[in-house]
Write a structure and sequence with these properties.
By secondary structure, this protein is mainly α. It has 15 helices and 12 strands.
Length: about 425
């Protein structure tokens, strides 16, 4: 899709970026891009189609590598031009699975060797991408060096020696480019399903209070405005989850992207006092337990997750508020686990408590808040709380029409649930 609303431009000390060429209203669909290269993330392998990234319980397996899976023979055929080069590589290390970064960089190299242009390079090409190698710590450079060695082992079946790589290619530089410019591909509910490179969208600079958001429909990237933007104003997105303290956000950005955020939120430590509210000793204990909860979640031990979260939530009821960042993470983990266990009433109880903190931290039209409202609305619907569900789902709809657009599958699903709730209310006998 041609860029009609913005252009590549100099953005002062932030380097190059994208600036609006006209006034833009909230909810405006600005751009759509196909990936230069992408993969399903390791955690999603086996549950999403390798080509369209749609979720499906039963997937067809590649008979050769035994790893790639597809939702249909059509997707399998469409994926073959990209998969054929990596198929032998995956087969050679089976049953081991390469890291996401290793597999993505391998696909990029195979793409480079074809010499075919890509529509996602409309404003910025692969060769333009910055690697930030000079700004990286020695430890990070060492980590990329290890990935380089892993890559060479992984692709040896297809590219046995360095002379067959694209001319002048530095693998270390390429890993740096991918680390600083790749996008996490998420499904409609903001759950990670893949990793991809969309060169033109790498021009978007970061803000902890952005005026645009990126969402995905399958592997297709979509850029939407979420605020009024004036002509010649820079377009920004958030590179990270903004539900973190200013110090934590800066640390993440410095580690992965090699810059110090100077946005107003970071400069003023906006909302840090809310995120760290409550008795310090108590919330520090909760914080230290979060890695254990995440480990239990990864293992699918949902009963244990609920037990751990419930213990901390009950113990700190009077000393740590729901706005505290770490208690909020416990509430989210408890909600997810109860949903997995079909404990709907408990899931609703926990999730309702997240709504006020989410409104505080995900200001305005933010996709994460919209999805959370939709989830709570669905739980209210399931529990027969129809009037509450309609109110919550309408709030979600107002946000998702801005962040995802009316044509996105998630918004369409929300409309269907909302219509069902309203129909059920209209069918209920009127009280005298």
């Amino acid at each position: 899709m041609m860029a009609r609303y913005f252009q590549r431009s100099c953005c002062g000390h932030r380097g190059e970026g994208l600036k609006a060429t006209r006034a833009i209203v909230p909810g405006q669909f600005l751009y759509s891009a196909s990936p230069y290269a992408y993969i399903p993330s390791k955690k999603a392998m086996g549950s999403v189609c390798e080509y369209c990234l749609s979720r499906k319980e039963s997937l067809l397996r590649c008979s050769q590598c035994k790893m790639a899976r597809y939702c249909s023979t059509i997707c399998q055929k469409l994926a073959w031009p990209d998969h054929k080069h990596e198929c032998k590589c995956l087969r050679s290390i089976y049953p081991k699975v390469p890291t996401d970064m290793t597999r993505l960089v391998a696909r990029i190299i195979f793409k480079m060797l074809t010499g075919l242009p890509c529509s996602s390079e409309e404003l910025y090409s692969m060769s333009d991408l910055q690697s930030n190698i000079k700004g990286m710590s020695e430890e990070m450079k060492g980590g990329l060096g290890q990935l380089t060695a892993m890559l060479q082992f992984y692709i040896k079946e297809e590219i046995p020696n360095a002379s067959q790589l694209p001319p002048g290619l530095s693998l270390l530089h390429l890993f740096g480019q991918v680390k600083c410019n790749c996008f996490t591909i998420s499904d409609g509910e903001m759950q990670e399903i893949g990793v991809g490179l969309y060169p033109s969208m790498s021009l978007l600079n970061h803000s902890c209070d952005p005026n645009c958001v990126i969402v995905f429909d399958g592997k297709q990237l979509q850029l939407h405005a979420i605020r009024q933007i004036q002509a010649d104003e820079e377009l920004t997105i958030s590179y990270i989850d903004v539900m973190a303290t200013s110090a934590e956000r800066r640390r993440q950005l410095e580690t992965q992207y090699c810059f110090t955020c100077d946005c107003e939120r970071c400069e003023t430590a906006d909302k840090d006092s809310d995120m760290l509210a409550g008795e310090q000793r108590a919330w520090k204990e909760i914080k230290e337990s979060i890695p254990k909860v995440e480990e239990l979640q990864s293992a699918g031990n949902w009963e244990e997750v609920v037990d751990v979260c419930q213990a901390f939530i009950d113990k700190n009821r009077d000393v740590v508020p729901d706005t505290n960042l770490y208690l909020l993470k416990m509430l989210d983990a408890a909600t997810d686990s109860c949903i997995h266990l079909a404990r709907w009433e408990d899931a609703l109880c926990y999730s309702v408590r997240t709504l006020r903190p989410y409104q505080l931290y995900y200001v305005g039209s933010h996709p994460v808040r919209g999805v959370q409202l939709m989830r709570v609305g669905k739980l209210q619907h399931h529990q027969g709380k129809l009037k509450q569900a309609v109110n919550t789902l309408k709030q979600a709809f107002d946000i998702l029409t801005v962040t995802h657009g009316r044509e996105h599958p998630l918004t369409d699903n929300l409309q269907q649930v909302l219509a069902e709730c309203e129909a059920e209310i209209s069918c209920r006998p009127q009280q005298m």
